[in-house]
Amino acid sequence: MHEEFCIVSDFPEILKVNDKYQPHCETGASHRWSDGFEIYHLNGVVVSREIVMTPAEKIDAKVILTEKNAEVRREIVRKMGTERVCQKLNAKVIDKSEDGVYELLNLNLGDGRVRPYLKMRNPSIGTYHVEGVDPLIKTVEQALNWRNQTALKPEILT
Known about the structure:
Elements: E1 14-15, E2 31-32, E3 38-42, E4 45-47, H1 49-53, H2 63-66, H3 70-80, H4 82-88, E5 92-96, E6 103-108, E7 114-122, E8 127-132, H5 140-148
Antiparallel strand pairs: 1-2, 2-3, 3-4, 5-6, 6-7, 7-8
């Protein structure tokens, strides 16, 4: 309720969630009302109908390059699979961590630019993701330092 107005809505006909009770449906709308209005979610993130309804193998990986929302990009990558995205964007491994958890990739952005990205496993959600780093970075160690801003800390505090 608001002091100046009230919104009344019917309950949705469809309300689908994942095992964490986040709005989620991989095959259609996560929410649908009797008037036909629908909302699409993947793992709690609002996405377009096209992202949900297009089979993973038919999604153009370049859509990731134009999507501004990081959570939506993450869900597109999750749906397509990190390896497939890296393959479709012609990723080249330029460095790996000794334990194999991190890789520094060069990705062709399709506009004449090839930029470094750090591929890493996100332990909180158990998926891999790829994150852009400074264009001058050449190693995984540099990328981690840049990401964690440890390269900016002085060795001796005065």
